[in-house]
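Q: Could you write out the predicted structure for this multi-component system? I'm mainly interested in how the pieces pack against one another.
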Amino acid sequence: MFDDLRDLYQEIIIERARHPRHAKRPLRADREAKGDNPLCGDRLTLWLAHTPEGRIAEAGFEAKGCAISLASADLMAEAVVGLTPEEAEMLADAVQHLARTGEAKELPPALAERFETLLPLGGVHEFPSRVKCATLAWHALRAALGRKDEEASA
Amino acid sequence: MFDDLRDLYQEIIIERARHPRHAKRPLRADREAKGDNPLCGDRLTLWLAHTPEGRIAEAGFEAKGCAISLASADLMAEAVVGLTPEEAEMLADAVQHLARTGEAKELPPALAERFETLLPLGGVHEFPSRVKCATLAWHALRAALGRKDEEASA
Amino acid sequence: MSLRPERKRAAPVVTEEMVARWRADFPILATEVRGRPLVYLDSAASAQKPRAVIAAMVTAMERHYANVHRGIHWLSERATEAYEGARARVARFINAPAAEEVVFTRNSTEALNLVAHSFTALMAPGEAVVISEMEHHSNLVPWQMQRDARGIELRIARVNETGEIDLDDLEAKLADGKVKLVAITHMSNVLGTCTPAARIAALAHAAGAAVLFDGSQAIVHRPVDVQAIGADFYAFTGHKLYGPSGIGVLWARREWLERMPPFLGGGEMIATVSFERATWAPPPYKFEAGTPPIVEAVGLAAAIDYLEGIGYEAILAHEAALVDHALRRLSAIPGLTLWGRAQERGGVVSFTLEGVHPHDLSTLLDRAGIAVRAGNHCAEPLMQKLGVPGTTRASFGLYTTHEEIETLAEALERVREFFA
Amino acid sequence: MSLRPERKRAAPVVTEEMVARWRADFPILATEVRGRPLVYLDSAASAQKPRAVIAAMVTAMERHYANVHRGIHWLSERATEAYEGARARVARFINAPAAEEVVFTRNSTEALNLVAHSFTALMAPGEAVVISEMEHHSNLVPWQMQRDARGIELRIARVNETGEIDLDDLEAKLADGKVKLVAITHMSNVLGTCTPAARIAALAHAAGAAVLFDGSQAIVHRPVDVQAIGADFYAFTGHKLYGPSGIGVLWARREWLERMPPFLGGGEMIATVSFERATWAPPPYKFEAGTPPIVEAVGLAAAIDYLEGIGYEAILAHEAALVDHALRRLSAIPGLTLWGRAQERGGVVSFTLEGVHPHDLSTLLDRAGIAVRAGNHCAEPLMQKLGVPGTTRASFGLYTTHEEIETLAEALERVREFFA
Ligand SMILES: Cc1ncc(COP(=O)(O)O)c(C=O)c1O
Ligand SMILES: Cc1ncc(COP(=O)(O)O)c(C=O)c1O
């Protein structure tokens, strides 16, 4: 009955939602942003810690939400470590595009590899009402990176 | 083209609208009532003068409105003279019924004769939006007769 | 009005064939969703429309459409007749003393905002309104807004563990005589609870308060007699009653419609206007500013005709059987919690499944062709009270079948496995 | 945007055959009234609906109906797509910068009340709003109500003898800098006058005021580009635009939607709610409380598709020819007075006939199958200014024919004889 749902709820999504690895505030956090999706009540706080050179050293979050939004946050927290803010933005862009359309954007090799780990988030594109679950954490990421024109709500 | 409109706009209606005979305040007026139809803007003030025995001695009005409402007021002012308040109520009732349905109610002989002169008002029953034009003066009559439960608006 | 007594004294037997015939009246029910037959269990959010409603709207647009009132021509007279006829139909439906007490609005929400605005205009600062803990946002937020604008007090009557209004608490909140209005749902859209309207009205009136019922859900599931329950105000919405979107109803006792100042200003609602000031038309027009939902009113009247053609007795019996079936079947699923255990309830069942977020649950059910609603159901404070982020809600209409409940239950069992 | 220049530079020729084809799209036009073919000259009160609009509404109810937003199931996603698609369609239609700036309301009147309520909430007592002498009650009464509630000032800009806004007077009324909003019709429903929106907006902005246009009539007769005219707010109503009843549109610049407090409270318009307080969803949802007119939005989008399919160039050319014809033909009738002689005008012609009350005139025309409107047209103060109890108004749609104007003129000549 639900075999085709495995596109959306891949093992990794269920696994990460149940046992997230980055659901905590990093000790040296220097940026914080909140994201919320008023339509479904999902809420998330994201923290970033940066290296002296301005790369992301660590990311962590606290969230209430569905499996997709939790897994998305956890996968993100992993994927952005080591990136410059510009690279993180590019990655966020690609994930948002993926979630909406199911299509992968062309990315520089360094990012392309990380993007691979995020492909399971593309399953939502068939479920318009769930796209925001997958992108909430990425909106918060942009907010934490300090882009003024970006609202921290999906 | 308009031959069938003669049902509604009988000679007497056009004649009375153009040259009303009772469009004035009776000198000895002892009752006054206003009627207005907010939907079309027709407005009317009605005055009654009574005999010592309580019969209507004279009726007069001042009005702004269409031919039907003016003619109705003028015909009314004529028809009610000499009636007791109860008789006037019965007549008002019969006219309102006539305007809505086109049907004549059974009336005592004395009233039946007066009612004959009002039959031209029955033409409106085919024109729901004009029924109130024909009945406005009669609503005001009830108000002037002092029936508390009757509003002076058609 | 209670379900159980109805059923005891030989409720009509609703056979599968009858329900099949009703279903045939709803074109959308033939839809396939993601390759499976649609199982529509979201009627409490909005009900589907029978052909009779759609046809009435089409006829209204193809045969006798024009703006209503003031129009001195044949088409406008026909449209006005249809529109005012719909008002009279609604009045008969809820046993209102007069058609002039029926105000057409955009939806329940607008009806509730109207009362919140125009009733509190008659109140003095410090006077109070009581609502309950299980109100829909539409019967909470408008009162909060007026509380802040006018300095009145807003009191919240408790809901007990079974999901029923705590009448002792309500009485206590009425005790100081400051309350001018009790505004309470007639049926919870989350818990399914039907509230004891007549008793609430009696308590309110004894304390000198008027009473409003939010009948958005209740009227879909049971006959409503506004006089019998002693209401001062009753609000409901067309789209949940198998009628069109874009129309709602506020019934109010004439006295209130006369006393309250108008809500929106504009065409149709005035008696006279100058550049300096306006005077108001008599009710209901005073509260119907601008061109009303003409075609929607005709559709709503057709929905009422359709419903009464089937009859509330049959609808009550069918829905009671569906609810019994669903409660029995779902409560047997391990890890599933049912929310709301009121004695008196309509065709709404809320639940959570351990370890599965309501949104994920919804998506999984959708994959099986099953439409349910997940989230806080516009009753966020109630969720906070229940201590859940949200629930999944299956809600039934007259076209719901027992087979569909089985499909839901089986799907829920599969979801558990999927997430195990 | 002017009619005459359009026509000078080779306006499209609209042939009788084209109009006949358009007419065939409107089922109701085949109606017989009192034994004669319907001559519908009351489109300014409400326009008839083309088959495409009716069909879109039927499809919305038979194929993809459910409540919108929050619904995590296929039908709700389809309904949400259709509803949000309609919002985007409206945005494109008026060249709004973003779909989120389009708020769906019940009608123009509600849109205008929304701004009257929520904009004046940002004003201080003593600050002012300017409207004009030719406003519809719906753009007058809401401001009077807020004036009385909030102690703001309401100024009324003069209309000159030809029926145009007196721009000098408007400028004078703006001079002291107290005015925060200019709210003026984009086309008079009585006089047909189209107002110079871009100039009014420039005057308003120069004086530090925002500007609202009541486009209820204008948008039916000409393309509207809210950015080009420099509007802050633009309101219109579905039923006059060949669309459904029960829906209106408020477009507003995002900045205003963000700054203004909400109007109605309830479901859909909140971000978070507790028993104590609520926070608001982002625009447009903040201003859309409760279940919106879902099916009506789909119908409105279909009406816009239909209109743009025909094209405003053709509509403008056709209506300009009709107005020319009507003015020429009617002004030749002895005893007939035409009201409103503005250069820029849409398809609306108001007149009085000496010795015949407008209501009697209407009834007589109705007998000939001709639907016109009589009375004060929800513009009572304008009537007082003109010194007439009311007028008779013939208004044209894209389906109006030159033959119908002849029928009207002949009937008017017979009415004169009848009353002679
Ligand atoms: C200029 C103008 N403004 C506002 C309105 C009000 O429109 P609605 O009745 O649809 O709210 C109308 C139509 O009646 C109008 O012509
Ligand atoms: C109990 C209750 N009240 C009010 C509403 C609001 O109805 P609407 O959205 O039609 O205004 C609803 C439905 O959403 C409801 O269930």
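A: Regarding packing and overall arrangement: Residues C 267, 290-291; D 107-109, 136, 138-139, 185, 189, 214, 216-217, 237, 239, 378 surround pyridoxal-5'-phosphate (ligand 1) (CB under 6 Å).
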